[in-house]
Amino acid sequence: MSAARHLGLWTLAEDHPTHVWMGGAGHAYAHEGCACIAHWDDGPVEQGFALPSIPRVLRQVLRCQGVESFFTALESALRRDELSASGRDWLRDHTNDAAREALAFARFDADSGLESLVRWRLRTWNLPVRTQVRVISVGRVDLLIGDALIVEIDGAGNHDGPAHRHRDLRRDAHAAIWGFVSLRFDYALVVHDWPTVEHAILAYVDRGLHLRR
Questions:
Q1: pLDDT (tens digit, 9 = 90+) per residue, 154-180?
Q2: Which of 110, 136, 153, 201 has CA 20 to 30 A from 116's CA?
Q3: What does pTM read for this prediction?
């Protein structure tokens, strides 16, 4: 996780303990106040303090934080064009079925880790979800379900303050003029209260609000 953050990949972990790559035969020595998380993993390094490769970092994210964190970091790497085809092949050969499902589902155009997380969690419902769709009079939206339900994911920093709030409300109003409906969720809802997010989306879909009238 430490290497993933250092490389600019989006991770779900909110705490920031130091993760240390020990190689395959390293030795950990406990010391007072240490909160490090050790990772034992064979692999070539050019020098003692070199970062592992992107595929190895992603595999460690999978092992340490699970498939959701792996998926968000994976799409971040793809968006940044930092994971080659050979790197994806290596991951398919050196991870598990859950990771291979994530690799097959991943896209190159995810705009944020929160967007990736929402798509990943919605996949079991087989909804017609498109990402980064340009909507008339609105601009690009994070997710479009069907042809009428806009889902916007408001990450911290990009939507704070009165000016940003006004912009978001104006976008939602313009969307309504053209027959779209909008749902807007923030980081806390997506990460800490997913059932509310899921139920809200499914309630709109059950009422057919994702379809143009």
A1: 876 554 567 788 999 999 999 999 999
A2: 136
A3: 0.82
